[in-house]
């Protein structure tokens, strides 16, 4: 009874807010355009005085081959897993000082594992069934991979960008990590995320801000921004990402066990998903097969013939809301004009999809469910402390908790 009453109250509150927003939308639109114009002008001015650093293209040819090609070359002993892992370690050391993408290095264990793989391959008879079945049993044998700091790995820290978790060590592998290891992949490093994985830039008080490899003055996005920056900088060839709003939507058959935070009470079966990230499109298929496992792969019918002529592509040119900046004019001109009516309510759809009665609030997840920040006076004090060095949360996430 209480739960239904809360749902009714929440529904009425949402409807009231939507009505107010619709009424004041013209005013908000004017204010929004003025605001975004001022912000763009301000940062254009600021960027003029800041040094721009661009990550240079990799010189080592081992960094320019796909994971699929690398695995095949390792099996055929044209290259060694050790040399490939070593090349990526050198690249990470070269670029990470600029982009701050890697927050935990697993280099020593990765080199040991790569050496073991090379020795195992050297002992196999190329005419044996064990060798011939490697491509099926271990399709990523010897290939290094990275993952974001929200996916558990046995023996490594998993902070999710939360200061309360900076000393938390996982005691098990996430299912997707175990499947990658079973496929022969070698874990190389862990990459940065926003606090609680809930923001569109990867910044937290534990590891700081991840920067864009094409312009160090800018952000790299989120919540898989560390992974995206590292892969873009050729510091990794394949990685594991996740989303809660659609940025990595397709692999819905990949298990979530081992992903933090544990959003109990939220609609995680549809809203929180794990998926592949890579530099070369040909690696997507093999990664999805590994992530989903045999059962998920069969459900996807990945080997079934596909007619490209019947494929439909959906795109949109923006949202009819004053809360977001207008789409870039160059991007707008590159697309045909389209106006699906329902997508302009994407924010309302998202919030409604996430909402479940009695679920822990975002402010609780900011403390790893160890303390309560749900009272507004406490949250406002958190905002104040976020302005100083002794803060435990970023200012943006503190404001998000209040909202």
TrEMBL record:
InterPro entries from the UniProt entry: Amidase_dom, AS_sf, FAAH2
> Does the keyword GTP-binding feature in the UniProt annotation?
no
* Pfam families per record: Amidase (PF01425)
Q: Does the keyword Methyltransferase apply?
A: no
Q: List residues traversing the bilayer.
A: 30-50
Q: Which GO terms describe its cellular component?
A: endomembrane system
- Domain Amidase, which positions? 84-344
Which controlled-vocabulary keywords does the entry list? Membrane, Transmembrane, Transmembrane helix
Gene3D superfamilies, A to Z:
Amidase signature (AS) domain
PANTHER family according to UniProt: FATTY-ACID AMIDE HYDROLASE (PTHR43372), FATTY-ACID AMIDE HYDROLASE 2 (PTHR43372:SF4)
Q: What is this protein called?
A: Amidase domain-containing protein
């Amino acid at each position: 009874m209480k739960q239904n009453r809360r749902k009714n109250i929440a529904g009425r509150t949402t409807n009231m807010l939507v009505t107010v927003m619709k009424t004041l939308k013209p005013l908000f639109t004017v204010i929004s355009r003025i605001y975004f114009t001022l912000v763009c002008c301000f940062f254009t001015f600021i960027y003029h005085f800041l040094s721009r650093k661009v990550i240079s293209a990799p010189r080592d040819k081992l960094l320019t081959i796909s994971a699929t090609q690398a695995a095949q070359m390792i099996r055929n002993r044209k290259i060694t897993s050790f040399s490939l892992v070593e090349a990526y370690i050198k690249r990470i050391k070269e670029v990470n000082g600029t982009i701050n993408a890697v927050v935990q290095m697993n280099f020593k264990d990765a080199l040991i594992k790569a050496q073991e793989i090379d020795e195992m391959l050297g002992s196999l008879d190329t005419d044996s069934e064990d060798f011939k079945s490697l491509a099926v049993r271990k399709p990523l044998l010897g290939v290094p991979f990275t993952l974001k700091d929200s996916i558990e790995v046995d023996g490594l820290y998993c902070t999710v960008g939360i200061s309360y978790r900076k000393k938390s060590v996982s005691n098990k592998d996430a299912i997707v990590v175990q499947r990658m290891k079973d496929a022969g992949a070698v874990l190389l490093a862990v990459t940065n995320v926003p606090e609680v994985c809930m923001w569109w830039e990867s910044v937290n008080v534990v590891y700081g801000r991840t920067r864009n490899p094409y312009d160090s003055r800018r952000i790299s996005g989120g919540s898989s921004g560390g992974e995206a920056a590292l892969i873009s900088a050729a510091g990794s060839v394949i990685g594991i990402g996740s989303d809660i709003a659609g940025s990595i939507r397709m692999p819905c058959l990949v298990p979530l066990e081992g992903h933090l935070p544990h959003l109990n009470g939220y609609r995680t079966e549809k809203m929180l998903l794990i998926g592949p990230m890579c530099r070369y499109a040909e690696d997507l298929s093999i990664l999805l097969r590994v992530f989903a496992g045999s059962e998920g792969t069969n459900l996807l019918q990945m080997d079934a013939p596909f007619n490209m002529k019947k494929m439909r592509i959906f795109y949109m040119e923006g949202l009819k809301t004053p809360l977001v900046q207008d789409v870039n004019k160059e991007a707008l001109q590159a697309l045909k004009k389209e106006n699906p009516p329902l997508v302009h309510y994407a924010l309302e759809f998202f919030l409604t999809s996430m909402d479940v009665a009695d679920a822990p609030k975002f402010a609780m997840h900011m403390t790893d469910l160890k303390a309560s920040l749900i009272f507004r006076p406490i949250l406002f004090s958190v905002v104040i402390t976020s302005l100083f060095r002794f803060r435990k949360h970023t200012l943006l996430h503190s404001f998000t908790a209040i909202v």
